[in-house]
Amino acid sequence: MTQQSTPMKGNRENTRRDFLKKSGMAGAFATLPMFDLREGDRSKSDLKQGKKTVVDLKINHPAASDRIPRVSPANAVPNTYTHKNRLFLLRVDPAELRGPHNALLRSPLNITRFSDQTGFQQTEMLYQQSDYDGKSVTQLQPVEGYTPFTFDVKMEGGTAVVSQDGNPVLRVSPESEATQGLSEQTVTVKKYGDPVEREIKRPGHEGTYTVRPVVGTEKTTVTPELTVRNNGTLDLFGAPKVAVIPDIPEYPILGILKGNIAADNMKVESVPNSDLFVVHRNYDHGPLFGQRRCQ
């Protein structure tokens, strides 16, 4: 977005309206009086943090039995975001990703730096569905008897090769994504009885509510799916103590603003001669709840 280097007040207001219109968030932003958009003195080159090959890996269980309860955590600001050959650092300090390594492996709970080859260990957190940013997820309630998967990820030229016990599982070329079903597993979950009506026992409240009591355990199966996306080599954009985001309608910028601690004035800078915005925030760089820092 091209703007004058020293806009007048009227231009700033027009910029803000244009931004809200483009983002499709005008109504939502209207409820945030602390929101303030201004043109900054940064340049696109100041925000570019080099290039890295970025490979994404996740394990989901889309067809898991309804007997396994689901949990959808509240939305939060993701660690990173990819869009059109760029990786945006939102809650990751650029210093954490610098170094001689040439690749990054993203999974819903982690970002691992590596050169040529690295390992992946599935966590105890199971997902019905997830993304690579740790934001849009549906978790499966804890189950017993699940054996986590371990993989090796190796770059052969530009191709990402994911192996298990030395045997290739997926080969994914740049700018491609592939999914492979994994071995079915039998797990133990809670067994719920018939619905029971119980009285509300709170002063000033009358009525009943329905519960399904736990009456034991039962066996069910889950079929994991491995999905790998090879983004190819991406430009990294970020800066200390801020979130750098692209000006695109589908990006959930409101989540960035809600992820900031309320302040007297929230500053969102537009970067001249680019489609980038910088969100100044009041929290330190760090992973989301339940996430690990970059390794």
Describe the structure.
- The chain is mainly beta and 295 residues long.
- The protein has four helices and 22 strands.
- It has helices spanning 9-23, 26-29, 44-47, 253-258, and strands at residues 35-39, 48-60, 70-71, 80-82, 86-89, 103-107, 110-114, 117-121, 127-129, 138-140, 150-156, 159-164, 167-172, 176-181, 185-192, 196-199, 208-211, 214-222, 225-237, 242-246, 266-270, 276-280.
- Strands 2, 4, 5, 6, 7, 14 and 19 form a seven-stranded mixed beta sheet that branches. The chain has a four-stranded mixed beta sheet with strand order 1-21-22-20.
- Strand 11 (150-156) and strand 12 form a beta hairpin.
- The model is unreliable at 1-17, 19-34 and 287-291 (pLDDT under 50).
Summed up, what is this model?
It contains 4 helices and 22 strands. It has helices at 9-23, 26-29, 44-47, 253-258, and strands at 35-39, 48-60, 70-71, 80-82, 86-89, 103-107, 110-114, 117-121, 127-129, 138-140, 150-156, 159-164, 167-172, 176-181, 185-192, 196-199, 208-211, 214-222, 225-237, 242-246, 266-270, 276-280. β11 (150-156) and β12 form a beta hairpin.
